[in-house]
Write a structure and sequence with these properties.
The protein contains 4 helices and no strands. The protein is an all-alpha fold. Helix 1 crosses helix 3. The protein is globular. It starts with a helix and ends with a helix.
Length: 84
């Protein structure tokens, strides 16, 4: 995988997260915490998970939710599930 592919995937993940959390993309960094900084709750986390599954055509186990606390964590989980 190239750096460009990773950046494009991170950008797609960021768009999904920002849309669901109803925040501006500028407000989110790879390490900003969704719950603490952006007020995400468990329902929003499940919405994010479902949207990512649909976007990337993969299945993500809900047991991975504790790792999905920021963009970096979400990317890792999606990458593992999608086999990147």
């Amino acid at each position: 995988m190239t750096v460009v592919q990773r950046d494009e995937r991170i950008e797609t993940i960021k768009e999904i997260v920002c849309d669901i959390l109803e925040i501006e993309e500028e407000e989110v960094s790879e390490t900003s915490l969704f719950k603490e900084k952006h007020g995400a709750d468990s329902l929003r986390a499940i919405e994010i998970l479902a949207a990512l599954e649909k976007e990337f055509g993969t299945v993500i186990n809900q047991s991975e939710l504790p790792r999905m606390v920021n963009l970096a964590g979400v990317y890792e989980v999606v990458a593992e599930s999608a086999g990147w």
